[in-house]
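Q: Convert this sequence to structure tokens.
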Amino acid sequence: MFLTKPPVGSAVKNTFLPSAEMGSLFPAILTLLGGTVGGYITFAGAHRLIDAGVTGKDKLKEVNRSSVMGIGIAAIVRVLLFLAVLGVVTKFAGINLSDPSQNAAIEGLTEYTGISNPAAYAFKAGAGDVAYRFAGLVILAAAITSIIGAAYTSVSFLKTFHPSIAKNENWWIIGFIAVSTLIMAILGGAAKLLVLAGAVNGLILPISLGVCLVASKNKKIMGKDYKHPTWLLILGIIVVLVSAYVGITSLGNLAKLF
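A:
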């Protein structure tokens, strides 16, 4: 980010007052929303805490610290990565991150012979080979945590259906990863599948959050002592409505990917 020198002022302004038409931004917003707080990510931390025995009112401080730390780190990393790539596309006007072969005429760009990988290519274009290697480490770390997290969380849902799944949880997780790898190898198109996964997760968010909001008012689920703050309930309902609208509106645009 420091090397590519992105226009931070413009980025801040467009965060609150986008110059682009809102409708055209919905697919990107949905993908980012789903990739950040949709799908397995919403449940992974909670399931892990439950499995570790970190439950009950006396553990609320630990739960809050864990969730705030996770959300905070994820938010900071996303902003820094965005600014780094924004600096690249600003510095090299007209750069095509998806197809580096189209960039031969752009001055200052070195030849790129790797496979099509927009994220890694942005690192290389912005800061050379060292950054390109770091991009590989970043993607590897993100991939490993996502693979393990998604598989663990999916199986933690499944194990409530039958005791044998809970008994052989590790083997089910390994099997889940193996099947997913096979599907990836057959279908290919990692970047497109990632966008699709983020979009689908974005649709899951209003459903899962809606269920949680309903549960927050149910004494049988939450207990007689729990009182969900009204302001949080109202904010939650707004998020459900907005994310559901963005998700439904973006479905047509996702078809263009394939």
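The mean pLDDT is 84.
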